[in-house]
Amino acid sequence: MSTTTSRLFGRGVEPTVHSLSRAALVSVAALFLGLRVAGATVPIATQAAVYLLGMVALNLPHGGYEHFANLRRRTATFRLWYVAAYLALAAAFVGLFLIAPVAGLALAILVAVLKGGGGDLHVLAATTGTGHLRTRGQRVLAVLARGGAVMAVPVLAFPDTFRAFSGLMVSMVDPAAMGAIAPHFGLTRPVIGLGYAGVVAAHLGLGYLRRPDTGAWLADATETILLIGYFAVVPVIVAVGLYFPLWYSARQVARELAVDAAPETGGRDLLGGRTASVGEVALRAWVALVAGALATAAVAVAFWMLVPTPLPTDSWLFGGVAFWSVFISVIALPHVVVGGLLDRTRGIWHVP
User: Where are the transmembrane segments (predicted)?
Assistant: First the structure.
């Protein structure tokens, strides 16, 4: 952890946000564990409503904010390149999904893993530290272990629900497409389980052997186990719907608070810089928020019109979960690739 990070953590804001994300997942997991012990179940329609609330109302605004915070001090040329690359990658995802929906589903799952794991890796670097992750291979293992909990654990814990909603997502384009791979579910599930268990064991084992005396490994191990427990106990629809706003977004706030202010990158500040009045900053922030919301809505409408059956079931709740799960992956792929991997100067997960 950097000197600046340590200094900032001393003020108590960042660890509070960081701790709240842990407490949130523990609380949700405890609630559903208690319901399971009591023999109670949450209706699937209620689960779908929670998913849509979490992913649309709570998480989507933060995704837009990440890009805005990244672009606000960049040059106009860079902003144009960024937006063009973003739209091109989103269009490529849509094309893949329309041509080969099963492959599109596989890419959507991979995107969720990379977003969750990649975002978490940078949070570790900015907060509790990554001194135990000494090689690129270990960092890859960390991404797969923490991000893999989002998809691999629900496959094992809630196979029927995972399979049903995967089928709905694919049936937006081709209702028969899942039929070709359905007979292999019995084999893929244990393979995924063993593979993921191996990744977690390697991640935690190597980290333990190479740990510095800073508590970084213990924090990483505790959070990794927490994620596994959360996705093993909470029904997959609710688990995914609340994970991104309660864990991913909250922890990115902690990361941003922990690092230094955005570096100068040669561009005009979209909020007007230090000389702007409070009113000017508020107005520009509002304009940026509205513009981002309209752009996202335009992409959603375009995707809706291109997909043969955007609501593949009579239930608008279940159909909404299927549609939004694919759509959020469409915009999350460039979120990870363009905003995270290709932007080496700063990026949405910036840690100095």
Answer: 20-38, 44-60, 80-99, 105-128, 140-158, 164-182, 191-209, 224-246, 281-304, 316-342
Task: Give the pair of three-digit tokens for residue 142.
Answer: 């960390």
Q: Is residue 348 part of a domain?
A: no
The two structure tokens encoding residue 168? 């709905």
Place of tokens 């864990």: 247
214-229 pLDDT per residue, tens: 889 999 999 999 999 9
Residue located via tokens 């927490």: 226
Q: What is the pTM of this model?
A: 0.90
- Give the count of beta carbons closer than 10 Å to the beta carbon of residue 87: 15
* Separation of alpha carbons 264 and 109, rounded Å: 35
Is 212 among the domain residues? yes
Structural domain boundaries, residue 10? 3-342
User: Which H, E and C letters describe 84-110, residue by residue?
Assistant: HHHHHHHHHHHHHHHHCHHHHHHHHHH
197: in domain:
yes
State the total domains in the chain. 1
**What is the per-residue DSSP string for 179-205?**
GGTGGGHHHHHHHHHHHHHHHHHHHHH
Phi, psi of 75, rounded to the nearest 5 degrees: -70, 160
Within a domain: residue 349? no
pLDDT digits (tens, 9 = 90+) for 117-174: 999 999 999 988 999 999 999 999 999 999 999 999 999 999 999 999 999 999 999 9
